């Protein structure tokens, strides 16, 4: 049994002297220091994403949507313009939305909003863009079957 001398200075709490005793103590700080973030407001370009497979695919999507938008804007005349306008809308929308997703992933902004499943969002965007590009191409080709310039732009 312990006597009164063993419990001297014991108030029911851990002694603070053993916690500060230095390197030989088993009680070391458990948090790591926070490194200073570089860039503007903590933004930094994630080159690993851009060099990876998904980054290259997303960059190719943006470039192809830009090329499609430029090609459809070079058409000077159209007889029924509804197909042309629909393709223009689809290409511009795909360019903007995919460009925003590329920025979100390449600047690691998607980590600041963890409530959204970004992989699913990216998959849905890619699927819908592909589907609507196909539909817009078919509509453009079907409505402008008389002239060859518009069909060449679709191909």
UniProtKB/TrEMBL annotation:
PANTHER family: CKLF-LIKE MARVEL TRANSMEMBRANE DOMAIN-CONTAINING PROTEIN 4, MARVEL-CONTAINING POTENTIAL LIPID RAFT-ASSOCIATED PROTEIN
InterPro entries cross-referenced by the UniProt entry: Marvel, MARVEL-CKLF_proteins
Annotated Low complexity bias: 15-25
Lineage: Eukaryota, Metazoa, Chordata, Craniata, Vertebrata
Protein's name according to its UniProt entry: CKLF4 protein
Gene Ontology annotations for the cellular component aspect, listed alphabetically: membrane
Protein keywords: Membrane, Transmembrane, Transmembrane helix
Cellular compartments annotated: Membrane
UniProt main location, coarse: membrane
Gene giving rise to this polypeptide: Cmtm4
Topological relation to the membrane, as annotated: Multi-pass membrane protein
Residues annotated as domain MARVEL: 49-155
Chain intervals with Acidic residues compositional bias: 1-11
TM regions (residue ranges): 57-76, 83-103, 123-143
